User: Fold this.
Amino acid sequence: MTQSPSHSASFFQALAGWPGRKDALALWQARRAGWGQAPPPQPVERLYQQLVAALLAAQGFEAGDEALRGEWAPLAGLLGAMAPGYFTARQMTQTLDQCPPLPPGPRREVETTLTRFFQGMAEGLPPWLAQPLMSPAATLAWAGLFPPGLGWAGLSAARRAGYRPLGAWESWRAWRRHDHGELHPLGEPTALEAWHGLLQGEEHPHPLDFLAEQFARAHCHDFPQCGVCPLANHCRVAAQAQEGPKGLPGLWGCLEQGEGEQLSVEQLLEALFAAEHAPLTGWKPLLQPLRKLAVLGPVELADLVPQAAPGRLMALFELARRFNEERLTPGVSFATAKDIHRHFRVRLRDAQREQFLVVMLDAQRRYLGDYLVSLGTQDRSLVHPREVFAPAIRGGANALVVVHNHPSGDPSPSKEDLNVTLRLVDAGDLIGIPVLDHVIVGGETFVSLGEKNLLHPHRR
Assistant:
């Protein structure tokens, strides 16, 4: 859906009157002057490592600097370990075999993308790799390395490596909100090309992209600040928000992206009962106890009332989930693993990907709070002790209970589950924040490694 440059006129004209325009353009000039003095250090190596990190992160794997120096080091260091001109597909296969196992689909994507990168290197250093400010054609060539749906991630990876590609998701989203009224526009596969087409039709594409990106970060976050936005008088999203209950597009957008846990009960009720363009009809099947609705899930709810807005259905399901979930209250003493299961049962039983969570306890084993550590693939969730213990230290926890789910429905611990548990137990003993239990949720059942005496097997 490539738009002609004329479609962007109103947004760019509105940006011309933005009070922050002068400061944003001054920042752009300063950064460009800095890029002109010297190219980024080791540009090819840094770009390659960012490519590896982006591909792994897109598949739900830990891809920080420590991971690239640790378990993913063979893959991250492949560019420096050989001459690209002599690269073979067999070397990529052998290197991946030295890293943590990837599911077949993600492995093919990683292998294909990195192989294309090496093939390009073998043909000679592309001119754009020597320039921090990437041309529109070079940006599209770089984004084209990535599998469908990951083009924006590719641009972010280039920025982290010290380059400035043309096009940013924040600026694209601000334009779509302003000119089209789409709170959460689809990002792939045509959005990136569409935004490039718009920017190339303007007189100064890079500064305009940077200006739009700075504006988006200042006023057009995931929940737009329409009340204080200087472009609100000409923005379609702001106009939509004024037509109905305050902030309704933001509430529905949050729900549709699976972030309903961030909303209060009052906000969920607002999203559920706010007026739509379509009348409230066909809702008799939903006038059941919330306990039954939570069993159905959001997909089945949508089948019951197909004409209902997705945001409204997600609000209903989130309310039902909370009604069924016996949440632990801060200050309540931790008693058994069954308490933990009751707390997380509804949240985890139907999850399609592994989630690894941590429950924080005080010195009297009273509940302080919980947090999500990682979101894995359908059959595994990678966890590092740093991500487990850092929030607990900041939160003043005296002990932890870790929880994760098995989407298969079978809570039986795998060998990897046992290894991760022992690693966390040892780290907790060293830090002084003991891990009291590891509860694995599978459907309506659970397994407690603590109750099975699997936390300290060497002490038997």
Strands lie at 355-361, 367-375, 399-405, 435-442, 445-448. DSSP finds 22 helices and five strands in the chain.
